[in-house]
Amino acid sequence: MPSKTVVLALGGNALAQPGEEGTITEQFRHTRESLGAVVELAREGWRIAIVHGNGPQVGNELIRNEQSRHLVPPLPLGVLVAGTEGWIGYMIQQSLQNALLRGGVDRQVVTMVTQVLVDPDDPEMQRPSKPIGRTMDEATARELAAELGGEVAETKGGWRRVVPSPRPTGIVERDMIRALVAEGHVVVAAGGGGCPVYRHPEFGLEGVDAVVDKDRAAAILGRDIGAEVLVILTDVDRVYVDYGTPRQRGLERLTVAEADALLAGSDLGKGSMAPKVEAAAEFVRRGGKRAIIARLDQGREAVAGNAGTEIVP
């Protein structure tokens, strides 16, 4: 096996797309469609770890929690994240095993439910601001918050639950993931950003009711397993400044300093691209050789340097 390791970060919307019901059949289909680049990279000998999002999926789990709360005890958010790590990992693992077999690539796939360390004193823990779950009217939202705990806030289109999103600082299972990847196995890890935990001085690892951004988690995982490359796959083909305006301009290559300057300004707007650029730059800053942000179907081309926006030291 060559020594090069890549971490691929797949968005949760790649598996459950807007405008669909989000049935498990649809999600399996999208999962199968999203793995072509992984098969080709595996064929070329890359060591691979896969991180996936879980935004739509954990939101649905919250709805199930709410609707069944009078029949069975509700589960805390950290446990729901672990549940989505397991079943989304199962979809990716099975779909990729089948695709590798059809492609004649002799590689094994394993899913690891992953705990991600956060700082319990992170200021984000005191500022729940990440919307998750369904949109509700104010009365319903406040009723659920009073009964189940947590906070709600008015967001675009209505009221939603809001939870903390602290920064990840490390991967608890990093040694096991690194060893499996080094042996040539494709590892699905830190799904949905992983289960956020902290080290209690008396009790050891303890979970927190929060969510971790999956791109930030992918950057930390890449650092912890010594990956050379991080690829963040999304629904646009590269990073754009002034996106959606007549001044829109795509970027092919950024240094970390240029990425930092871009993040400090307003050119990226308030969308979801800024956290991706931040995670990519942080990965490179901490020793990664390069990070690429590209469209989901361009993963192999992105690794080859022929697609997306590349961030380098």
UniProtKB/TrEMBL annotation:
One of its GO terms (cellular component) is cytosol. InterPro entries: AceGlu_kinase-like_sf (IPR036393), Asp/Glu/Uridylate_kinase (IPR001048), Carb_kinase (IPR003964). GO terms for molecular function: carbamate kinase activity. SUPFAM superfamilies: Carbamate kinase-like. Keywords: Kinase, Transferase. It holds the Pfam family AA_kinase. One of its GO terms (biological process) is L-arginine deiminase pathway. Residues 4-294 form the Aspartate/glutamate/uridylate kinase domain. Belongs to the carbamate kinase family. This is Carbamate kinase. It comes from Longimicrobium terrae.
